[in-house]
Amino acid sequence: LDSQYLTVKVTNSFGFDLPISYNKGADSPNIVGNLASGVLRAAQATNVVVPRDFEGAIFIGKTYDPGNSKIEVSFKSPQGYRPGLDVSYVDGYGVPITCSCGGVPVTGCNIPLFQRGTCARQGPGDRVICYNPKKTIYGGPADPFFQPCQGAAYTYPDDHTANAFGKCDSGNIQCCVGIYGNGTHVPDGLC
Predict the structure, then answer these.
(1) How far apart are CA 46 and CA 41, in angstroms?
(2) Alpha carbon of 84 to those of 13, 72, 81: distances in Å?
(3) Pairwise CA distance, residues 6 & 39, whole Å
(4) Distance (Å, rounded) from C-alpha 36 to C-alpha 40?
(5) 3-state secondary structure string, 4-30?
(6) Where are the beta strands (DSSP E) in the chain?
(7) Contact assessment for residue 49 and residue 5, using Cβ atoms and an 8 Å cutoff
(8) What pLDDT score does 105 carry?
């Protein structure tokens, strides 16, 4: 990718306002505009623009808890400045997220897990966050609550089939927060 920047458009299709926050690696440059934590309004979108050599995450959920669902992004060399992207529920799950590149779904899982299973370790409140008991356990399989999303989003540390490295060379990534389409692993289209 020849661009100096990578854009990740995050659209809130969850039905109500959601807190959004960001972090970056210790040696990473700041997100363009140095975005602060805030609220992504229902049916609204934000563009997160990252420069070359960035690696970090976009956290989104029902609280600012770092155990929320997240989008992990890298735009580093020696990968030839190819975007690295995945949706991760390794720390926990709060909301479903899927990401597409050029209209093609590449990572994430929009299955509403709280409607499909019982969480072994819930965060504050009812159905706010399900902390992942496999957060530090390699080799899988996913915890039963997270099982429907295994391989589509990271559900344990080395669930690498969820990684979309090399699938987003356009430099323009669209991520949808919420349920879309028929509730399968990835959306039938864009948010």
Answers:
(1) 9
(2) 24, 8, 9
(3) 22
(4) 12
(5) CEEEEEEEECCCCCEEEEEEECCCCCC
(6) 5-12, 18-24, 38-40, 45-51, 54-60, 69-76, 82-88, 92-93, 97-101, 104-109, 130-131, 172-177
(7) yes
(8) 87
Residue 185 scores a pLDDT above 60: no
Residue 84 in 3-state DSSP? strand
pTM above 0.85, yes or no: yes
Does the structure show a pLDDT above 90 at 128? no
Chain segment 55-75, per-residue pLDDT in tens: 999 999 998 888 899 999 998
Tokens coding 106: 């590449």
Q: What is the DSSP string of 156-177?
A: STT-GGG--TTS-TTSEEEEEE
- Long-range contacts formed by 28-31: CB under 8 A, 24+ apart: 28/53, 28/54, 28/55, 28/56, 29/53, 29/54, 31/56
Q: Give the closest residue to 73 by CA, choosing from 38, 108, 121, 120.
A: 108
Mean pLDDT of 100-118: 88
Q: Please give the Cα distance from 73 to 105 (Å, whole number).
A: 16
